[in-house]
């Protein structure tokens, strides 16, 4: 149910943006959802709709763009996609990364040189792309 | 439009039922911030205050050792509820790392801190005590950036080497107009007064001293024993300064 905590942030922030744009009603909410956080979109969508009730977000169409996560090794420069390492994780490790994506450094190493010193270049978590 | 991180909007809300937020900081490592954070939490709880304890030493979390709790997991409830340890609400990165090394660089420290504050649903608290990491980098700067009602408790030991760094933290906090409750002189050996004098010259409260206890390690993990130890008696007097 971590999705509810993030959904709350999205609703609050979207309402702030809508207010700053002087929108009377939000028609579209554009979200980018990174792979690493492994958001359950069904729960997330439900939470967003529940939390948007009785606000100008209530009737907005929520569009999700999933984006592939990439990792770049600071030690050897190798770049790889998160999904290449995903299957080696057990459920407990996946859950830890779901809650705190940076714990990826505990459970994943560069497939080329074995270093945990890499950066997440794309696809970490949830971002608002636009409120229309 | 630039991509916007939605998490920042809920951090203050997550803390709205927390009356006072006290980071225990030093700038210098090894001066006893963690033991003082844990003892403050235990002593304030004994006085029937509702206490939260957050370990923000992301590279070297240790409060779980002092509280003897490594194998619990925060309960999921629209986010995560802190682990309840003898009526202290406790949160630490340790619950997500299986006690393995967490290696990361600057921006990711920031993201970890933001994530922890976003997902943690603190109960109603009188005090949230935060065990800070050494240094004056991301965790300190982000905490100050994101939470605007911090009251710092500064810890040093009796050495000039530690005070050299601690002084810089104090100067920084004062320059930024961030409240400082005062300074605790920990592991006091000898009877020199230079730390007290330094506090006077820096214009902050010298809250008191805690003696150096050779047998302190014997109390770790036993919350009942540690609360009755001589070190608790000394900290108890200091607690009265800010309660």
Could you walk me through the main structural features you see in this protein, from its secondary elements to its overall organization?
The complex is a heterodimer of chains A (132) and B (243). Chain A is α+β, with helices and mostly antiparallel strands and 132 residues long. Chain A has one domain: hypothetical protein PF0899 fold (2-Layer Sandwich). Chain A has helices spanning 2-20, 41-52, 82-86, 91-99, 104-107, and strands at residues 28-34, 61-67, 70-73, 79-81, 118-122, 126-131. Chain A has a three-stranded mixed beta sheet with strand order 2-1-6, with helices on one face. In chain A, strands 4-3-5 form a three-stranded antiparallel beta sheet. In chain A, a hairpin with a 5-residue loop joins strand 3 and strand 4. In chain A, helix 1 packs across helix 2 (41-52). By secondary structure, chain B is α/β, with parallel strands linked by helices. Chain B has one domain: Rossmann fold (3-Layer(aba) Sandwich). Chain B has ten helices and ten strands. Chain B has helices at residues 11-14, 33-46, 63-66, 94-97, 106-119, 138-146, 160-175, 194-202, 223-227, 230-239, and strands spanning 18-25, 51-55, 75-76, 80-81, 83-85, 88-92, 125-131, 152-156, 180-188, 206-211. Chain B has an eight-stranded mixed beta sheet, with helices on both faces. In chain B, strands 3-4 form a two-stranded antiparallel sheet. In chain B, a hairpin with a 2-residue loop joins strand 5 and strand 6 (88-92). In chain B, helix 2 (33-46) crosses helix 10. The mean pLDDT of chain B is 93. Chains A and B meet through helix 1, helix 4 and strand 6 of A and helix 5 of B. Chain B: Pfam families: ParA (PF10609). Chain B: GO terms for molecular function: 4 iron, 4 sulfur cluster binding; ATP binding. Chain B: Keywords: ATP-binding, Nucleotide-binding. Chain B: This is ATP-binding protein. Chain A: Keywords: Metal-binding, Nickel, Zinc.
């Amino acid at each position: 149910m971590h999705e509810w905590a993030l959904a709350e942030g999205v609703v609050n922030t979207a309402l702030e943006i809508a207010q700053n744009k002087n929108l009377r009603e939000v028609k579209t909410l554009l979200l980018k959802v990174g792979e690493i956080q492994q958001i359950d979109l069904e729960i997330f969508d439900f939470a967003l709709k529940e939390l948007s009730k009785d606000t100008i977000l209530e009737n907005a169409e929520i569009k999700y763009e999933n984006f592939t996560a990439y990792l770049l090794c600071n030690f050897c420069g190798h770049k790889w996609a998160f999904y290449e390492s995903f299957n080696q994780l057990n459920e407990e490790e996946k859950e830890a990364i779901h809650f705190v994506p940076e714990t990826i450094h505990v459970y994943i190493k560069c497939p080329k040189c074995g270093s945990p010193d890499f950066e997440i270049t794309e696809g970490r978590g949830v971002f608002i792309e636009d409120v229309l | 439009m630039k991509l916007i991180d939605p998490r920042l909007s809920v951090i203050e809300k997550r803390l709205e039922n927390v009356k006072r937020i006290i980071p225990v900081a030093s700038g210098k490592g090894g001066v006893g911030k963690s033991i003082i954070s844990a003892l403050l939490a235990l002593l304030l709880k004994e006085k029937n205050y509702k206490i939260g304890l957050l370990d923000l030493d992301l590279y070297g979390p240790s409060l779980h050792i002092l509280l003897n709790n490594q194998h619990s997991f925060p309960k999921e409830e629209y986010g995560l509820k802190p682990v309840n340890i003898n009526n202290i609400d406790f949160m630490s990165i340790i619950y997500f790392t299986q006690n393995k090394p967490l290696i990361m660089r600057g921006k990711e420290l920031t993201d970890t801190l933001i994530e922890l504050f976003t997902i943690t649903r603190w109960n109603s608290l009188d005090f949230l005590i935060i065990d800070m990491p050494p240094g004056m980098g991301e965790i300190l700067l982000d905490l100050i950036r994101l939470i605007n009602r911090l009251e710092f408790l500064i810890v040093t030991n009796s050495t000039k080497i530690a005070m050299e760094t601690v002084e810089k933290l104090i100067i920084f906090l004062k320059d930024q107009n961030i409240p400082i409750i005062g300074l605790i002189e920990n592991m006091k050996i000898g009877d020199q007064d230079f730390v007290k004098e330094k506090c006077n010259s820096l214009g902050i409260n010298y809250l008191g001293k805690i003696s150096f206890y050779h047998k302190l390690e014997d109390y770790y993990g036993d919350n009942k024993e540690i609360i009755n130890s001589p070190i608790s008696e000394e900290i108890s007097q200091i607690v009265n300064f800010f309660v």
